[in-house]
Design brief:
The chain is α+β, with helices and mostly antiparallel strands. The chain has a domain at about 10-70: Alpha-Beta Plaits, CATH 3.30.70. The chain has helices spanning about 25-30, 55-60, 75-99; strands at about 10-15, 35-40, 40-45, 65-70. The strands form two sheets. The protein has a two-stranded antiparallel sheet. The model has no long low-confidence stretch (mean pLDDT about 90).
């Protein structure tokens, strides 16, 4: 049986500063003290955050949410860079022909 190669993802918590009203509820519920209010907006110290999601659940404006980031391995990164370089070289050659 073939298994699909799952895409690895990294999870972190983020604040939509346009939605945040600086009420401080997230600060009070954070068990690690990772959240502070700076310039009337929530700011999350991602090194201190343990991703418990208490701030996500309690934010009255849904300004705090989960950020999913794709984790790419080194070989995939090298392949992507190589492909971009080939495309850039192709574009440069086409521009040179126009001059």
């Amino acid at each position: 049986m073939l298994q699909a190669n799952p895409v690895k993802r990294k999870v972190s918590i983020g604040v939509n500063r346009n939605l945040c009203i600086g009420c401080g509820i997230c600060v009070r519920v954070c068990p690690t003290g990772a959240i502070s209010i700076v310039f009337n907006k929530a700011l999350i110290n991602k090194q201190m955050c343990n991703n418990c999601y208490q701030c996500v659940y309690t934010c009255p404006k849904s300004a705090i949410g989960i950020e999913w980031k794709r984790v790419i391995n080194l070989n995939e990164l090298k392949t992507n860079i190589s492909n971009m370089q080939k495309k850039a070289d192709n574009i440069i050659q086409r521009i040179a022909k126009l001059e």
